[in-house]
Amino acid sequence: MSVSPSSSAQAAREAVARRLRELRKEAGLTIVQLAAACRWHHSKTSRVENALQSPTTTDIRLWCSATGATDQVQDLIVQSLNAESMYREWRHQVRAGLKHLQDSVAQFYRDTQLFRVYSSTIVPGLLQTEGYATAVLRAAARFRDLPTDDSAEAARARVERSRVIYEQGHRFVIVLEEAVLHCQMADADAMAAQLGNLLSAGALPAVSLGIIPMAAGERRQWPEETFQVYDDQMVSVELVSAEVKVTQPCEVALYLKTFEQLRAMAVYGAEARALILRAIEALH
Fold this sequence. Notes:
- Residues 20-73 form the HTH cro/C1-type domain.
- This is Helix-turn-helix domain-containing protein.
- Pfam families: DUF5753 (PF19054), HTH_31 (PF13560).
- By secondary structure, the protein is an alpha/beta fold.
- Helix content is 53%, strand content 13%.
- It is elongated, with a radius of gyration of 23 Å.
């Protein structure tokens, strides 16, 4: 198992590992004795206690039984499952198809009041047109070697999910690097439609759309990985291999600070529209 790049996820795993180690020591068992009682090699005990291997629910049950702590089984299982949910590899998330992945967060979007979105790579899903979303998701399906390409259905689900920007009770603060406008993820017609949609979305009362110009002078904050902040409670970070959910308040605060610095470098209104129009002209 690879170590999570998110300190939030790793800290949660280490908390479980630390408690299991404490239970072993409180029971007066050595690593070898605990392993014998659980019927596995002692190296596994060491890996679990050092958070290098996540324990399964069966592992936790055996561990607690061996240490006389069966009353703590359920709490440790829940804690361990929560830790693992913070770091979700894409290959696991897309097993049921790309459309299922879009549908799985639809209710979460409806429940969120304030969205803060920063993208240095592509147009965020909340603002994608169906043509652009189809191209993006088709590329993802090819890259993941998915046995079934349901990118067209997933794109429709993504656009349907994104209708939340037209519903009352939500606010959207979105910051894009100018390079996003010139990253041609789809053909010229689909790109023109997508850029036109940015012009329309940026005019919505609930949407604040900022663009950081490539010629912005000396930057106060370098481009970051794409991330979204939901109601000051959780940050979703998109990596090549996985989606990382950051929930520790101190880390969420760091992402909020980063977002505000990036937002301050962006241009809005007429200046942002001019950058989008320039990108549309460049298509031809």
